Amino acid sequence: MPRKLISAIKEQSHPLNDQSLDKLMDAIGNAQIVMIGEASHGTSEFYTIRAELSKRLINEKGFSVIAVEGDWPSVQAINQYVKGYVEETQSAKDLLIKAFHRWPTWMWANEEIADFTEWLKEKNNSLDKKVGFYGIDLYSLYESIDEVLKFLSNNSKYKVDLEHAKKAFTCFEPYNRMPEHYAFSTAHFTDECIREVSSLLKSLRNHEEHFPDRHEEDLNVIMNALVAKNAEAYYREMMQDALSWNTRDLHMVEAINEIIKYHARDTKMIIWEHNTHIGDASETDMKDEKMINVGQILREQYGKDNTFAIGFGTYEGTVIAADKWGEPLKVIDVPPSKLSTWEGQLHAAGEEDKVLIFTDENREMFNDWIGHRAIGVVYQPQFEAYGNYVPSRVGSRYDAFIFINSTKALSPLKE
Question: Could you tell me which PANTHER family the record lists for this protein (predicted)?
Answer without folding.
Answer: ESTERASE, PUTATIVE (AFU_ORTHOLOGUE AFUA_1G05850)-RELATED
